[in-house]
Design brief:
InterPro entries: Nre, Nre_C, Nre_N. By secondary structure, this protein is α+β, with helices and mostly antiparallel strands. The chain contains 13 helices and 13 strands.
Length: about 375
């Protein structure tokens, strides 16, 4: 393996070695067999489902990615923060009451936890969930204080006749963000037949469910009155969104450049798309649903329908995978930033190619040929 030959000297071309970063992040951590302090969120693993381990995430931080972006944290800062985060691991079913109380609270609750032995350092990077550095098997756990529950959350979690899908839709419509909804779903607080849900599954499920609800509303709106291009960058993830007036269609093309985290020695390009419905799980995994959610939020806010192309270019700057929240927030930043109106599709395609840095994505698109050859009812 190149890593064995390289030993962190940068032969791979990445800005920072993901392997060595585990050791750098470990330096300030002092393992202990107890913890007393804030538990802003919960985590449930997927290994061995349905008998899964779960517990609180313990760190003096809000554990809310939009806050990290607003504070200007860099990848190093986030990795260091997550390296100090402790994931409490116990039988999720046995800890369900405590997990649910933490998830319900609008303000982080404090916990007092005894572990069976000092927590172990095991910083792992994943494409869906944010990394966690420390893990400890829970011997005893007490939640200190009482949960403060928002009215909308209380209504959705108290109604056991409400399906999980409907609960997600109602919570989102009330202004509850997807990060909070994911916590509620993970803790087994939503739906008719309730059970804890592995965090990685809950993240994608909430993005998918909420964006489907928005997609249905968008389908009833009039089309945009012009072609628009948006762009933004976050942690080496460059996002370009091209919106064309018409009924809802969505396509996403991902480009992992040479020497990028998962690009290896050659460029990798992948795509997926949909019309008013979609079957099967996206080959682009959670990133697809996170990007679709961000664009759907924008179209709902302006009450217009559109055909959408999202381009994602991942460079070597993205040296540690931080989770699909990066794609969600990068796309949100793009849609909330300034838009560039374009006179025609060719101008928009050329602009998108300049913004993303190349035009090699074009042969992979199925939406662009459709837009250039087919007329819609809106054009008559």
């Amino acid at each position: 393996m190149q890593c064995a030959e390289c030993k962190g000297r940068g032969f791979c071309g990445l800005e920072r070695c993901p392997i060595m970063s585990r050791f750098y992040a470990r330096l300030p951590v002092r393992p202990s067999d107890r913890y007393q302090g804030a538990a802003p969120s919960v985590f449930v693993g997927s290994y061995g489902y349905p008998k899964v381990a779960g517990g609180p995430l313990m760190i003096d931080d809000a554990d809310h990615p939009p806050d990290w972006v607003a504070r200007g944290l860099q990848i190093d800062d986030i990795v260091g923060l997550r390296a100090r985060t402790i994931r409490g691991a116990g039988e999720a079913k046995g800890l369900a009451g405590s997990i649910q109380e933490i998830a319900l609270s609008s303000q982080p609750l404090d916990v007092e936890v005894r572990f069976t032995k000092p927590v172990s350092f095991d910083l792992r990077f994943d494409g869906t969930i944010a990394p966690v550095g420390l893990t400890g098997a829970i011997k005893k756990m007490d939640v200190l204080g009482n949960a403060r529950v928002d009215r909308a959350v209380d209504r959705a979690t108290s109604d056991t006749d409400l399906s999980a899908t409907d609960a997600c839709e109602i919570l989102n419509a009330s202004g509850t963000d997807v990060y909070r909804i994911t916590q509620l779903l993970t803790a087994g607080l939503l739906g008719k037949k309730r059970h804890v849900v592995p965090t990685r599954w809950a993240i994608t499920a909430v993005d998918d469910t909420v964006s489907k609800r928005l997609r249905k509303k968008i389908a009833r709106y009039p089309p945009l009155n012009e072609i628009q291009v948006f762009s933004a960058s976050l942690y080496g993830n460059h996002i370009v969104c091209l919106l064309v007036p018409g009924d809802w269609k969505f396509e996403m093309i991902e480009v992992w450049g040479k020497q990028s985290l998962w690009g290896g020695g050659s460029e990798t390009i992948a795509r997926d798309g949909e019309g008013l419905t979609k079957s099967g799980y996206s080959p682009l995994a959670g990133a697809y649903y996170s990007a679709r959610l961000a664009v759907a939020e924008y179209l709902e806010s302006v009450r217009r329908s559109s055909r959408v192309l999202v381009l994602r270019n991942v460079t070597s700057e993205y040296w540690a995978p931080l989770g699909t929240w990066v794609v969600r927030e990068a796309t949100r930043n793009a849609m909330q930033g300034g838009k560039t109106p374009c006179a025609d599709l060719k101008q928009a395609i050329d602009l998108a190619s300049r913004l993303i840095g190349f035009d090699r994505w074009r042969p992979h698109s199925r939406l662009i040929p459709e837009l250039t050859t087919q007329k819609t009812l809106f054009e008559f």
